[in-house]
Amino acid sequence: MQGVRISADRYKVLYAGSAGALSTLPFQALCEAGFCPCAVVVDAGSDALAQRQALPVVTEGADTLPALALANELPLLRLSADAHEAAGQISRYAPDIMIVSCFARRLPEAVCAVPRLGCFNLHPSLLPAFRGPSPVFWQFHEGVNPMGVTLHRMSAQLDAGDIVAQTTVTMADGISLQQAGRLLAEAGGRLLVEALSRYGQGKWKGHAQREEQSSYQGFPTQADYAVSTDWPAQRLFNFMRATCGPGIVYPCLVDGRAFRLVEALRFQASGTARFCVQGDQLVLPCCPGFVHARFLTE
Fold first, then answer.
1. Is residue 272 one of the residues assigned to a domain?
2. Which of 86, 126, 195, 211 could form a disulfide with 148 if both were Cys (CB 3.0 to 4.6 A apart)?
């Protein structure tokens, strides 16, 4: 990837995202650091309530990009689903750079080709590992810690463009997906500010991803919540604690018996324990360690 020279006070940034922390917190970090975008881009199919209102209602603590755009007196662009029309919408702002973080859908190549210096995406994993739409879920599923955030150039292949910057984030045991997402979003905001500062000072360099180290995972299905006592206890506990919620069940086969786990209570990372069941709770011997969990009895 060739370095690009630009002037800090002469480039225009568009910011595209959605409603979650992985979109809103990096946007707020940019504004607080003086890199306020020239406009905010959201999907035309999202935030239907706001579309029906003549003026968005902003309340204290509002955490959607439309609300934040209004609070910062920035234009809000609802991007058309039609690629040609969307490219025209973006072109009207004549952006130098477009920053994308958790946009509601994949941007067409016609849109990515508009910004003079390119489109760049914040992705919540250490690429090239865990490409795809649900990287935080899959990092918990695989027991990855630390996790991380990558700023990369967008390319025709999803999450496969040149890496500009990366940072790691260590997760505490028992953290939820929402808490992990917020930590990754905060780290992503810092990473983005640092990268844009380097961009304004001269050359922004990147390096190609190593395809032999890449992995891709899609949206999780019900079958992907199955857990195994072959896992380390820490992995099993943290995966369940991160992803638990109403209606979520974790199938687990122990000594030929099928259990439907619903809550991880505590764990020991090392040592051994005998498998036992008492009421709606059980002890799961793992490799290594053991987990105390609750299961459905009916």
1. yes
2. 126
List of residues 6+ apart from 134 with CB closer than 8 A: 217, 218, 219, 220
Spatial neighbors of 189 by CB under 8 A, at least 6 apart, are 25, 26, 27, 28, 29, 30
Could you read off the pLDDT tens digit of each residue along the chain, which spans 298 residues? Answer: 444 433 345 578 999 998 889 999 999 999 999 888 999 999 987 544 333 333 333 333 457 888 999 888 999 999 999 999 999 999 999 999 999 999 888 898 999 999 998 999 999 999 999 999 999 999 999 999 999 999 999 999 999 999 999 999 999 999 999 999 999 999 999 999 999 888 765 556 789 999 999 999 999 999 999 999 999 999 999 999 999 999 999 999 999 999 999 999 999 999 999 999 999 999 999 999 999 999 999 8
Regarding whether 152 and 37 lie in a shared domain, the answer is: yes
Task: From 213, 234, 269, give the residue that closes a domain.
Answer: 213
Residue at 142 is within a domain: yes
Domain membership flag for residue 58: yes
Nearest of 70, 65, 103, 74 to residue 86 by alpha carbon: 103
Interstrand relation of 281-285 and 276-278 (parallel, antiparallel or unpaired): antiparallel
